[in-house]
Specification:
Blueprint lengths: L6 E2 L13 E12 L4 E8 L2 E8 L13 E11 L3 E11 L5 H31 L1
Parallel strand pairs: 1-2, 4-6
Antiparallel strand pairs: 2-3, 2-5, 3-4, 5-6
């Protein structure tokens, strides 16, 4: 059986993710420490800056572009001090992406999944009643 697909979480939702969960998120690269295989992504929402810490060991060698937008796919780890860290499996530069459009696409995808789950629940209840 295949593992569940990685859900898209907005950077301000990452801290609430449970450990071991696969996820996708994005942010602007603001720092990279090669010796520790650590990168930090930043995103602004509701006049706050949200930081996403990324462990980059699995995607190295990594040629960072400070200030560029990145998309990360990986698993959530809880770490003392940093809080939530994403152990990256994929880290792509997506500089030039329209963030407003990306957020709208994420919202539409979530809406579609909710509607699909509701239809499946109704079909299951109908099948169980007969």
């Amino acid at each position: 059986m295949l593992p569940a697909a990685a859900a898209f979480l907005l950077p301000w939702e990452v801290d609430a993710a449970r450990e071991g969960r696969s996820l996708r998120t994005f942010g602007r690269l603001i720092s990279y420490q090669a010796e520790g295989s650590r990168a930090t992504l930043s995103a602004h929402h509701a006049s706050r800056e949200h930081l996403v810490h990324v462990h980059t060991l699995f995607v190295e060698p990594f040629n960072p572009i400070i200030g560029a937008q990145y998309l990360v796919l990986g698993e959530v780890e809880k770490c003392e001090g940093d809080g939530v860290v994403i152990r990256a499996r994929v880290l792509n530069c997506v500089d030039g992406v329209n963030l407003a459009l990306l957020q709208k696409a994420i919202a539409e995808q979530r809406k579609y999944f909710r509607e699909r789950e509701a239809k499946e629940a109704v079909a299951t209840e109908t099948g169980a009643a007969t």
